[in-house]
């Protein structure tokens, strides 16, 4: 058993991350939170949107990279841009909608107008700027952006490694996750946003925590039929958690649902027989019906992408740090673009059942997150344990550290990346 470490001997936030624990101050220290915005969110790839959220020229979505408000927009040539949401004149935001469609962005303060590509197109009384302003130099500031499988990421750091290199071992799992369109392209179908009074890292931990499921989600399990309840009884199963590098991890809860294009000849679960009949009556072939039915409930794993998004079984979960003790969560429902209406409707109903504001899952999670934040304030010293499963680790087929499904392998992976970034010199 390790000797307790006195926090008074710790000089930085990075020192508060050990191999098997983190200090509770990481949840509540305002100075550490400000440092995180600089060293973590300003220095890595941050997920902002899925391309399907920008279906047409002029489609936009506003988002955050740490403390920086940004606009994600598709221009008339169908190219996607990420730009700081700040007028180059006096600094007002030029877009306030969460999502929408526009022909241009106009500052509400002095009327400077910008094209969908961010270029400065017009400004009132241009004669007053004669010979002192070159419009080509005063477009909205663009942020480096790259995409993988329709997932849009951006970074404020120009010399950061390419996105695909950063994703590394997670790419394999993203490829598997997008198969839940049921043979159709993946499509975002709206989101549910809420805030909880707790630190962002509490939610980051939760997505890779299977240990809490039978306790926190008793009400969800009790709402299921026997067949479905058996599916979610996975703590004693063959699932696992794998460290994918760079803070990413995957938690496989239902191994038989990892690849949704395999085992299509398996019997259709009883809870989906009505859907299968409806699809068949619409004229879909037996293979199409089986592909759609197998994909309707989502993948059997949670993929955590450091620092702010999870591909969580059947939806995207995006976290946005607001303050040291407040986090905004976006739950984005997904389906198939062009898929049968019955398929997408079923996915929405399943999403509402667990993730929705009146669902059986997320409200219980939110209560647990709030209690962790409250409890972290107790006492003057204290550590949060992350050591579950450390004595029973193995190596995955891909050469990664692997633990049982109820291990804290994914949390340790995220915190080691956090420690790496927080060890960087502070900005001058």
TrEMBL record:
One Pfam family name is: Rieske
**Which SUPFAM superfamilies has this protein been placed in?**
Bet v1-like (SSF55961), ISP domain (SSF50022)
For this protein, the record's InterPro entries field holds: Rieske_2Fe-2S (IPR017941), Rieske_2Fe-2S_sf (IPR036922), Ring_hydroxy_dOase_asu_C_dom (IPR015879), Rng_hydr_dOase-A (IPR001663)
Question: What GO MF terms are annotated?
Answer: benzoate 1,2-dioxygenase activity
Name what cofactor the protein needs.
Fe cation
Q: Which Gene3D superfamilies match?
A: Naphthalene 1,2-dioxygenase Alpha Subunit, Chain A, domain 1, Rieske [2Fe-2S] iron-sulphur domain
Which segments constitute the Rieske domain? 45-154
- What keyword terms does UniProt attach to this protein? 2Fe-2S, Iron, Iron-sulfur, Metal-binding, Oxidoreductase
EC identifiers of the protein: 1.14.12.10
Task: Tell me the protein's name.
Answer: Benzoate 1,2-dioxygenase alpha subunit
**Organism the protein comes from:** Paraglaciecola agarilytica NO2
């Amino acid at each position: 058993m390790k000797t307790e470490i006195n926090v008074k001997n710790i000089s930085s936030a990075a020192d508060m991350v050990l191999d098997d624990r983190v200090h509770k101050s990481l949840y509540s220290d305002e100075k550490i939170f400000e440092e995180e915005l600089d060293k973590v969110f300003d220095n890595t790839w941050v997920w902002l949107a899925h391309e399907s959220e920008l279906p047409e020229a002029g489609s936009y979505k506003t988002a955050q990279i740490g403390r920086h408000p940004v606009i994600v927009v598709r221009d008339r040539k169908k190219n996607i841009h990420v730009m700081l949401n700040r007028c180059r004149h006096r600094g007002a935001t030029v877009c306030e909608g969460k999502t929408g469609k526009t022909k241009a962005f106009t500052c509400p303060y002095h009327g400077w107008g910008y094209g969908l590509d961010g270029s400065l197109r017009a400004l009132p009384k241009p004669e007053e700027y004669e010979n002192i302003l070159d419009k080509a130099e005063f477009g909205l500031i663009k942020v480096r952006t790259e995409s993988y499988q329709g997932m849009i990421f951006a970074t404020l750091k120009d010399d950061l490694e390419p996105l695909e290199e950063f994703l590394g071992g997670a790419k394999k799992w993203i490829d598997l996750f997008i198969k839940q369109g049921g043979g159709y392209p993946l499509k975002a179908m709206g989101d549910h946003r809420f805030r909880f009074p707790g630190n962002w890292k509490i939610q980051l931990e939760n997505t890779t925590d299977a240990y809490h499921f039978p306790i926190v989600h008793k009400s969800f399990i009790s709402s299921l039929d026997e067949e479905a309840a058996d599916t979610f009884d996975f703590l004693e199963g063959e699932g696992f958690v794998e460290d994918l590098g760079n803070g990413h991890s995957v938690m496989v809860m239902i191994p038989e649902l990892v690849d949704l294009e395999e085992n299509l000849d398996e019997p259709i679960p009883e809870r989906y027989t009505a859907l299968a009949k409806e699809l068949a009556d619409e004229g879909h072939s037996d293979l199409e019906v089986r592909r759609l039915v197998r994909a309707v409930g989502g993948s059997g794993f949670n993929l955590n992408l450091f620092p702010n998004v999870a591909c969580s079984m059947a939806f995207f979960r995006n976290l946005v740090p607001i303050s040291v003790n407040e986090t905004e969560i976006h739950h984005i429902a997904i389906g198939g673009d062009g898929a049968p209406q019955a398929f997408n409707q079923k996915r929405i109903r399943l999403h509402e059942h667990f993730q929705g504001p009146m669902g059986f899952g997320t409200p219980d999670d939110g209560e647990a997150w709030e209690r962790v934040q409250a409890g972290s304030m107790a006492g003057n010293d204290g550590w949060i344990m992350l050591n579950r499963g450390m004595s029973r680790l193995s190596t995955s087929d891909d050469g990664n550290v692997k633990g049982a499904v109820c291990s804290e392998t994914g949390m340790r992976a995220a915190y080691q990346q956090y420690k790496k970034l927080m060890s960087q010199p502070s900005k001058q």
